Amino acid sequence: MPGLNTSLLTAMHALMAQQGAMDAITNNIANANTPGYSRQVPVFTEVSPTCQGSLVFGNGVALERFQSVRDELLEYRIQEETAQQSSADAQTNATQQIEALFSSSGQDIGSQMSAFFGSISSLSADPANLALRTQMLTAGQTLARSFHTTIAQLTQIQQGLNGSVVQDVENINQIAQQIAGLNTQLVALQAAGQDGGTVKDQQTELVRQLSQLTAVSVIQTEGGISVTTGNGTALVVGNAVFSLETSIGSDGMQHVVSQGQDITTTLQGGSIGGNLEVRDGTILQTVNQLDTLAYEFTNAFNAAHEQGTDLTGNPGSDFFAPLNSATGAATQVNVALTDPATIAASSDGSAGSNGNLTQLLAVQTSALPSGETPTDSYSNVIFQVGSIAAEAQSESEASAMSLAQLSDQRSALSGVSINEESVNLIRYQQAFEAAARVITTIDQLNQVALNMGVTNGGY
């Protein structure tokens, strides 16, 4: 039958187990504000009992391991929502810059186009006035410069996004290296029978940071986690890292390359996905629309101008420099005339006639080959840019709300509650004190047993 020593051993097991539990609780409290930390709970197991005949004697408790409290599905949803919000934020920031180019500042294309037709209207009151003719030429030149400036500013925004792509790729590679290093640590810990919760938390936080850059997929394997982009391009497999690279493509833009394959068009989500969407989508579409407007408008205006005659009675020539195609038209549009007398205002050959100015004014309200008037065409550009910016902003707000809800769910499950941990700490401390009291009692009993029969004389 077990004696005092067995009871002492049982109490010692309890003491060690409760001490380990208190250590875990203390660690939880210490990491209450650590990003990505998952609280740990002690897992106790009953020590195998001792059997003597038909009697079974318990041997107490042992602390088997520490287990991190986490929900892998919830973590995946947070990563997914993080990628969506980061993409929407990147698009919002970029499209708001684009939107500012089309505000009615007085220097935008729409304002300058109105000013140009206003100068034609002023000239119609006194067609032979050279000062008014000069104003019309100046207004035309200012309109052309507004096209040039807008395209230059769009290009500048595009180049900024180009640089962001390079920076995002560098950050992706750095995080992938860290994840691979943690894989090595995690495998070693799990081989030793440990939970590796702290390493998993670090990996989860790194994957979340990676999701801010691009949408990723995570698979748990024996060698740790494998991480791929949303389209399946490998980034991390075990302790191996497959770094991404950037290179200038034929379009002059930075392209993302993985193991020799251009994956630029397949990258979605995260800041890199949002930046690519604006760089290769929104900006390119806007530039094409402005090119088409510049090409069709100058052709229509030149055709109307050629129907009249100038101050000397000569047939009108091209007011704007003729353009061969819509490609690059917005950067090439320029006023061809240099002499205000060559403006073909007359429709009958007389210097005081303003008949052809009416035809020039009609260009503003006549449909271009695209089916829209110049004003409507430009308004459509503004509307589309505004719609894209508003949609990105709305998606960002919706993602932020969804992400906040998911984060709250994670906090409720995996986060540290100081109140709850304090209660647990008291509970384990009381159990620790009880085990210590048992040990003290057994020690006293042992002392009594050893001193039994001892007299003052020693016998």
The averaged pLDDT comes out at 90
Total separate domains: 2
Radius of gyration over C-alpha positions, nearest whole angstrom: 39 Å
Number of β-strand runs: 11
Report the sheet-strand fraction.
Answer: 5-15%
* Element order: H for helix, E for strand: HEEEEHHHHEEEEEEEHHHHH
Shape designation: rod-shaped
Strands of the biggest beta sheet: in what spatial order? 5-6-7-8
Helical region count?
A: 10
Largest sheet: 4 strands, antiparallel
Question: Residue share in helices?
Answer: 55-70%
Structural class: alpha+beta
Oligomer: single chain
Q: Can you walk me through this structure?
A:
The protein has about 450 residues and is of the alpha+beta class. It has 2 domains: about 5-70 and about 415-450, no CATH class; about 75-190 and about 275-405, no CATH class. It is about 60% helix and about 10% strand. It is built from 10 helices and 11 strands. The chain has helices at about 5-30, 70-100, 110-125, 130-190, 195-215, 270-305, 330, 355-360, 375-415, 420-450, and strands at about 40-45, 50, 55, 60-70, 215-220, 225-230, 235, 240, 245-250, 255-260, 260. It has a 4-stranded antiparallel β-sheet. Strands 9-10-11 form a 3-stranded antiparallel β-sheet, with helices on one face. Strand 2 (about 50) and strand 3 form a beta hairpin. The protein is rod-shaped, with a radius of gyration of 39 Å. The two termini are about 30 Å apart. The mean pLDDT is about 90.
